[in-house]
Amino acid sequence: MPQALPASIDDTIALLKSGDYVAGRDLGTVVFLALRMGRPLFLEGEAGVGKTEIAKVLAQALGRKLIRLQCYEGLDVASAVYEWNYPAQMIEIRLAEAEGTISRERLSSDVFAERFLIRRPLLQALDSGDGEAPVLLIDELDRTDEAFEAFLLEVLSDFQVTIPELGTIKAKEPPIVIITSNRTREVHDALKRRCLYHWVGYPDAAREVAILRAKRPQASAELAREVVGFVQALRGGDIYKAPGVAETLDWVSALHELDCVTLDPQTVNDTLGVLLKYQDDISRMEGSEAKRILDQVKDELRSMGRV
Asked: What stretch of H or E contains 92?
């Protein structure tokens, strides 16, 4: 059963927290406004900072169906909106020809009936059939091309799509739309203007510790602080691809599997492949550099009375 939309920014933050998503007030504000105004929310930021998770948590917390369109290069209308079931149409045509009782005009109408329509994510979101607006996640839009962006303008402006054989299909209740981009290229201004915008950055240390405690409660408070301190130091260093929150969570899970209760140089070196995804970064950090960072983190925590 769908839940009522949050009535305030604080309610929105609490709603996200109910799904173990720790949001700052800036993010809570823009999510609240997007929900209340019925506008798509465009989330941009580095990979692994939690953009996609926002849509998942909203769907779960609001009791809505989540429909995900994973974008990629070459994505077209047939994969994103609809296509016709050509094999079934051909069978229908052959059967009609064998019987010889249906006129060509009627046959043309029959083969383009809705029962031959294959609904892809965008059409499913606009015409869900049960009258309950889902959460539509358009994930990594920057991977598509400008032609697909242009097609999306009709969807995001009027929450409708046009199928030549059937006409225009308009949503009875607009879906909650979350669009994400890793900014591998710039998305056109015309599309952004139809959305509310928010940059999802890396969390500060306090919020990242809170995220770990919510998502990985099996990790000790000491380990969570050491992990976050190490990751935050990596992000401020000279590496090609800084680890996101997703990698931080993966690292804590890996450390838990190794029965690690506190970081040590050997364990850090052995598990850098969970945290970093490029060999050049691993080579730069392993050994003395990882030990230097870890020692610095532990010294800082001791000075704060956290170890």
From this structure: helix 86-99
Task: Chunk the chain into consecutive blocks of 10 residues (it has 307) and report each block's average pLDDT, rounded to whole numbers.
Answer: 90 96 96 96 95 97 96 92 90 77 66 88 87 92 92 88 89 94 92 95 95 93 95 92 95 95 94 95 92 94 77
Q: How far apart are CA 123 and CA 9, in angstroms?
A: 31
Both tokens of 107, joined, read 């046959």
Q: Is 167 left (phi over 0), alpha (psi -120 to 50) or beta?
A: left
Buried b (16+ CB within 10 A) or exposed e, 189-223: eebbebbbebebebbeeeebbbbbbebbeebeeeb
How far apart, in Å, are the Cα atoms of 105 and each of 102, 110, 168, 185?
8, 9, 22, 47
Quote the CA–CA distance of 175 and 173 in Å, as a whole number.
6
